[in-house]
């Protein structure tokens, strides 16, 4: 059987890939678009979840990283660098390993999940924890790339946006057209920029007849675009989007304004509730930052902004196992501790109320 070839080969025409191009791939993309009947019922529409946690390193970052690393290698780079809240660094580390080059990753000290840090370690990245936040890390990586022989692979590098736009193509391919509404988390704002580009190209090439309204969501404690001002000390449980000065700020505004969309802020408690709702109702376990797509959809529905009968795509950006401790947390805020029994079937049956 023929397996999925990764986004550079599957979308070679849209990405300008030829036989002569360097392709560093782990088979990213081709992620499932899962219809959620419970969410559909809640908003009186059809809700489809684009599960990006099923990419090779567990997040959507792989789509951009295959392009960025392939082009870096093509230009002779021996090292790549990025700032990250954890997922970009995991992807950079893995694709650098695949390419046989060095990754240098700068992360905010003590503020990335253990799963993501472990990925960078195991793939052999050079990791520096910066005593500061993501925005400080990004400034340093940009300057490193400007003055030293390392190739920047943050989404300020347009190759990342090019790769990430392929998720829109996949959604259009599966649905047969663009959805009416697309919900997406916003951190550094590269992904909403990429999706909007993808949908725009799908429309202009005739793959789709329309473009969706783009609804982007930031965590309330890290919502510079909603507030219209840089947030100096961003804070949220959704560490992946704990960003106060997004690099692609203008791209997010363009997606919102050109699509008649919205960028809103969501409280941490609603993010965590949405994470459990998606996992328990639909079978999809995502990290907190990703669950903001679900929380945001429900908030917009409550505000009367989701017309009945709409087709809605939700991007859930990263796997729940990245940040597994939130999976254990229950509605009352305590961690689940499963009951224990002896190795005795009668006792287990009684405990379960079966006997
Ligand atoms: N969801 C997850 C799981 C992320 O890791 C990120 C960004 C986003 C959403 C937001 O996407 O930045 O394109 O608006 N993570 C970056 C990182 C910042 O370093 O991994 P965005």
From TrEMBL:
Pathway: Amino-acid biosynthesis; L-threonine biosynthesis; L-threonine from L-aspartate: step 5/5. It catalyses: O-phospho-L-homoserine + H2O = L-threonine + phosphate. The keyword Lipoprotein does not apply. Gene3D superfamilies: 3.40.50.1100. Keywords: Amino-acid biosynthesis, Lyase, Pyridoxal phosphate, Threonine biosynthesis. Its EC number is 4.2.3.1. Its cofactor is pyridoxal 5'-phosphate. Residues 82-123 form the Rhodanese domain. Transmembrane segments: none annotated. It holds the Pfam family PALP. Signal peptide: none annotated. Catalyzes the gamma-elimination of phosphate from L-phosphohomoserine and the beta-addition of water to produce L-threonine. Belongs to the threonine synthase family. This is Threonine synthase.
């Amino acid at each position: 059987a023929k397996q999925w070839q990764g986004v550079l080969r599957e979308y070679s025409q849209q990405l300008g890939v030829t036989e002569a191009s360097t392709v560093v791939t782990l088979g990213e993309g081709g992620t499932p678009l899962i219809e959620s009947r419970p969410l559909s019922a809640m908003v009186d529409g059809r809700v489809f979840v684009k599960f990006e946690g099923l990419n090779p390193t567990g997040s959507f970052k792989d789509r951009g990283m295959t392009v960025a690393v392939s082009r870096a290698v093509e230009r002779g780079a021996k090292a790549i660098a990025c700032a990250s809240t954890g997922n970009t660094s995991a992807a950079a580390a893995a694709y650098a390993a695949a390419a046989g080059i060095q990754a240098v990753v700068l992360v905010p000290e003590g503020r990335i999940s253990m799963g993501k840090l472990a990925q960078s370690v195991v793939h052999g990245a050079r990791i520096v924890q910066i005593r500061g936040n993501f925005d400080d890390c990004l400034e340093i990586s940009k300057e490193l790339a400007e003055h030293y022989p390392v190739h920047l692979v943050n989404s300020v590098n347009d190759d990342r946006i090019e790769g990430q736009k392929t998720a829109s193509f996949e959604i259009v391919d599966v649905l047969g057209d663009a959805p009416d509404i697309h919900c997406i988390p916003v951190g550094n704002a590269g992904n909403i920029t990429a999706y909007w580009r993808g949908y725009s190209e799908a429309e202009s090439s005739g793959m789709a007849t329309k473009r969706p309204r783009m609804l982007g969501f930031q965590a309330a404690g890290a919502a510079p675009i909603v507030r219209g001002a840089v947030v100096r000390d961003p804070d949220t449980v959704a560490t992946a989007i704990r960003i106060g000065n997004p690099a692609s700020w203008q791209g997010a505004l363009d997606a919102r304004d050109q699509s008649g969309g919205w960028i809103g802020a969501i409280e941490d408690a609603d993010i965590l509730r949405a994470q459990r709702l998606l996992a328990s109702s639909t079978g999809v376990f995502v990290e907190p930052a990703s669950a903001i797509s679900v929380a945001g959809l429900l908030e917009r529905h409550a505000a009367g902004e989701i017309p009945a009968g709409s087709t809605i795509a939700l991007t859930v950006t990263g796997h729940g196992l990245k940040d597994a401790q939130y999976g254990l947390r229950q509605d009352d805020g305590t961690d689940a501790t499963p009951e224990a029994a002896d190795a005795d079937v009668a006792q287990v049956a009684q405990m379960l109320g079966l006997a």
